[in-house]
Amino acid sequence: MSESLYREFVLSKPEIAGGLWQFIKANAAAYCDRKTPLRVIVTEDERDRLDEQISFYFGVAIKRLSEEAWVDGRLFSKEAWHEELASRFLPATEIVTPSGEIVLRRQSIARGRIGVKAMATFITQVQAYAATEHGIEFD
């Protein structure tokens, strides 16, 4: 049975960086020789958004907006409110397509796409908007 190489290093103190470097030095050449180079990704250690955050966002905030927020004499669906608020409060990134077109794509709240802190900020912005623009109060 072939094992897949996987190792994580959390750089919680500077000395751990030495262990990361030793691990790379000990394995990089062998994997390059096998034509399966190692992939090194460095990112800030933040937990993925929580299921409870998603439940509150859709089950409370978006639900209340879809049931109580009248705009131009009508109510809008949960989906419409989610698109509106995500495009309003989540940062957009530019994507260049193969044809050269530049497309703006908003950040996603899908698993693995937003952290706990960013999701908390987003929910706070949504609640503030709902309160100031539509008079919706949250407990």
Q: In words, what does this structure look like?
A:
The N and C termini lie far apart (54 Å). The protein contains four helices and two strands. Helix 2 (51-68) packs across helix 3 (78-89). It is elongated, with a radius of gyration of 22 Å. Strands 1-2 form a two-stranded antiparallel ribbon. Helices cover 48% and strands 7% of the residues. The protein is mainly α. It folds into two domains: 1-45, no CATH class; 51-134, NinB fold (Orthogonal Bundle), CATH 1.10.3790. A hairpin with a 5-residue loop joins strand 1 and strand 2 (102-106).
What structural keywords apply?
single chain, 139 residues, mainly alpha, NinB fold, 2 domains, two-stranded antiparallel sheet, 4 helices, 2 strands, 48% helix, elongated
Radius of gyration: 22 Å
In the CATH scheme, the class of the largest domain would be Mainly Alpha
Strand arrangement in the largest pleated sheet: 1-2
The number of strands is 2
* Biggest β-sheet description: 2 strands, antiparallel
Count of folded domains: 2
- The helical percent reads 40-55%
Element-level helix/strand string: HHHEEH
- Average pLDDT, rounded to a whole number, is 92
**How many alpha or pi helices?**
4
Q: What is the CATH topology of the largest domain?
A: NinB fold
Q: State the secondary-structure class.
A: mainly alpha
**CATH architecture of the largest domain, please?**
Orthogonal Bundle
Percent of residues in beta strands?
A: 5-15%
